[in-house]
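Quick one:
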Amino acid sequence: MKKIPYGRQSITDKDIEAVVSTLTSDYLTQGPKVKEFEIEFAAYVGAKYAVAVSNATAGLHISVLALGLKPGERVITTPITFAASANCVRYAGGEVWFADIDPSSYLLDINSTKELIESKPPGFFKGIIPVDFAGLPVDLEKFRELADEHGLWLIEDACHAPGGFFTDSTGTQQKCGNGKFADISVFSFHPVKHIACGEGGMLTTNSEEIYKSLQSLRTHGITKEDMSRNEGGWYYEMKELGFNYRLTDFQAALGISQLQKNDVGVVRRNEIAQKYKKAFEGKLKFQSLKQGDLNAHHLFVIEVDKRKELYDFLHQNNILAQIHYIPVHTLPYYQSIGYENAKLENSESYYRSCISLPMFPTLTDDEQQYVIDKVIEFIHG
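Output:
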């Protein structure tokens, strides 16, 4: 069996044609394709506004700035995520506080979050960054209620979950990134994600004020609107310290093409997940799913007692399983700035046993069956 990665992009002739068409146009960057992508993505998730950025980490960075995070202010997130979900707070000089995960869903636990907030005086925290880990949407309705109760903003890290949704208390399906509950949602277009642009990201919001702030921060803080004076067509003003976090037009062209097939990809990802679940039911633990929710399945994670041994066994058999993630509070940087005594038992227990199996739409039935057979061979062997 050839090597099977845990995730990979799917690039079709249509994708290539879209990129080539843009490469031969007048604009490689700062042209019309970026705006087209933003409009189509906002419509896809059901949000009013979308802002394309160079990558999701850049998006997280300007999101906390747009929401007014100041040095020394505190934000809560999950330790089971890629480091960028926490690092964005540090970029702004803020402090990261970790709440534990739910051991069944692997998502930031709302009760742990509530307990942490209520253990401190009012105003101690400024915001919460829950993560739609592995593609499973957080119940943002409940987090919005908690945030409003304590005057906090809410950023949804939806990098794993375009196309996913949760069902709210009224029975309505709420698509990730629709802006109804989170102040800002952040998506990633890294090659192993649902929508591959090489690199790239998208921010969605329903607030015009936040939208304009994100646009400014993405492009050096420079504007040609509402200027104090106008000396000619060349003139612009820099009104704040922003960044060069722009997406290129040829990446946007690829993103538009990829977006058009995301729903089909999510269906296929769920077919793969169901086959894994059927094979492993009663044998292994995997991520739980609340009835009425749709997991977009960036990952399929199982838990095993001998994780390192299974990891080595799978790699020896050309199955390139991966680990998601080392708990952020245990990374050397965070240990060095005061997190060495953090006690997040569910997160640490999860890390000791988690392993991500291949999950991507072009995974064939034969490849998946080979993965299943090898996992079961290891369990029985």
